[in-house]
What we know:
Its cofactor is (6R)-5,10-methylene-5,6,7,8-tetrahydrofolate; FAD. The protein is mainly alpha-helical. It has 3 domains: 128 residues, Rossmann fold, CATH 3.40.50.620; 122 residues, Alpha Horseshoe (Serine Threonine Protein Phosphatase 5, Tetratricopeptide repeat); 151 residues, DNA Cyclobutane Dipyrimidine Photolyase, subunit A, domain 3, CATH 1.10.579. The protein is built from 24 helices and 5 strands. A 5-stranded parallel sheet has the order 3-2-1-4-5, with helices on both faces. α5 links the parallel β4 and β5. The chain is globular and about 85 Å long.
Amino acid sequence: MALNSIHWFRKGLRLHDNPALREAVQGAATVRCVYFLDPWFAGSSNVGVNRWRFLLQCLEDLDASLRKLNSRLFVIRGQPANVFPRLFKEWKISRLTFEYDSEPFGKERDAAIKKLAMEAGVEVIVKISHTLYDLDKIIELNGGQPPLTYKRFQTLISRLDPPEMPVEMLTDTLMGRCVTPVSEDHGDKYGVPSLEELGFDTEGLPSAVWPGGETEALTRIERHLERKAWVANFERPRMNANSLLASPTGLSPYLRFGCLSCRLFYFKLTDLYRKKNSSPPLSLYGQLLWREFFYTAATNNPRFDKMEGNPICVRIPWDKNPEALAKWAEAKTGFPWIDAIMTQLRQEGWIHHLARHAVACFLTRGDLWISWEEGMKVFEELLLDADWSVNAGSWMWLSCSSFFQQFFHCYCPVGFGRRTDPNGDFIRRYLPVLRGFPAKFIYDPWNAPESVQAAAKCIIGVHYPKPMVHHAEASRLNIERMKQIYQQLSRYRGLAPGVSGSPVPTGNGSGSILLNFDSEEQTGPSGVGQQHQRLQQHGT
């Protein structure tokens, strides 16, 4: 009897280093690669047009690559649990393969599909390739609990075997005699939909700064590694205004959607050092390992993206202030540095990791005292690289709700940007209304004399809003609030924050919010180091 396979794409939208896809074609007579898209979900979900466009471009690129192998991508409209039983019968399927999903809701979904497959007599093969390690092994090594400090996480993975090497890209040779039955009306039935079909208004939509797809990802990684040559030469990058802009070497959205294999990235970084006959330091992989750390922390915690009911999250009585939240999300805070970042995020779907630090701190413990959950939702909507585990973990981190407790460090929404981009070119790019201000006042235009505002053709309070808060006062108050919360918590537990055994998770010095793999500077505690501390300022 002929062996007919389905490979189910979710993340992992690539042909390189895709072990589950390799299993699908192994010894099979036919293979169909499917991706499920729920049109109703597209119209109702909290995901912005840039992320949807990136996904559709990924699917188009995947389909184009499969065509070169005389195959096609089948984009299925509907829910997997509702559609798979029909496909198993209609296509006489005997094998289903997919990449392991470590997130709690993904595991629940996959368990239901495995049950349906078993009932239909379909073999299921699942392979790990979205993470470097088997997360369950890390947790098992830690006594059944995920490590809640990065240092502990590093200790645990040092005891594991190195990540597995990437598998070979799917080729004609590997396909062998395996074919994909494609009907003449394939495009109508299973083609990649347009944004318009999903209900998005694309009139006036600017071209994508980040084109989606594996082809683009593989081009970018070569550029990225050329630029990363400083790593092997032991050089340190410098943060400047250009660092704040999207780079043709950026990789974060491609890792998030699995257009780029994290294992391929890992071993290409290793090769940089091998060429220098030197052993790479663990910090070289910091960007990937922080991603792995948050995946591990989240995998068995379905409440990881919530404050209530989340065992690792400190309960903080955040303010409910929809008006203030809207000003932050819509770039109307009156602080040019914050508003320029949020404008870039909405327009392009990406911001530098230190810019993420700035706007996240401003929304939560720095100025507005609004819950990290609200900020997480906005990032989920707008960020191309927003990832459930990393997004939630990073917001908890920077709001001092988990992992990190140095609440007395607070980003100044004036001084931080000024140190990074003294001339204010970034602000002029994204807030043209402020273009006429001299560098002296572009970060705090409300302090400019009326004559300067008039010359700039921008009167503060008329053409651009006044600051929504007094930063020095707000941050001072919020630091005191945090201090009281942590004092109460430590008294209740009989432990000081940061002491071994504390119920409050601790970091080891400095944090990273939403790792983005794109800046030259290493992200996270192992890399930000002194620069992170230098840029964190209380007061202007």
